[in-house]
Amino acid sequence: MTEKITPAQPEHVACAVCMEEIPATVATSQEGDEYAQHFCGLECYDKWKHQQAEEPEGNDKG
Ligand SMILES: [Zn+2]
After folding, report:
1. Cβ–Cβ contacts within 10 Å for residue 30, how many?
2. Architecture per CATH, 12-53
């Protein structure tokens, strides 16, 4: 049994919008109220911001 040697790679994070994995070094991060979100780019960051803005309240959908 040989153990696989994993190459040292930078920490990756998942974009909060498109779930794309990007290196934490290039990720756009937003320190939210509870935890930080990561984004692959400003485009996704903008989308996320809009989503936060229009937070659905009292969804009475079955
Ligand atoms: Zn993204």
Report:
1. 15
2. Roll (2.30)
The Å distance, Cα 40 to ligand 1 centre, comes to: 4
Question: How many whole angstroms from 37 Cα to the centroid of ligand 1?
Answer: 11
Ligand 1 geometric centre to CA of 24 (Å): 13
Cα distances from 54 to residues 40, 45, 48, 50, 57, in angstroms, run 21, 15, 10, 6, 9
Instruction: Give pLDDT tens digits for 5-25.
Output: 777 777 899 999 999 999 999
Q: Rounded to whole angstroms, what are the CA distances from 11 to 8, 32, 48, 49?
A: 9, 20, 22, 24
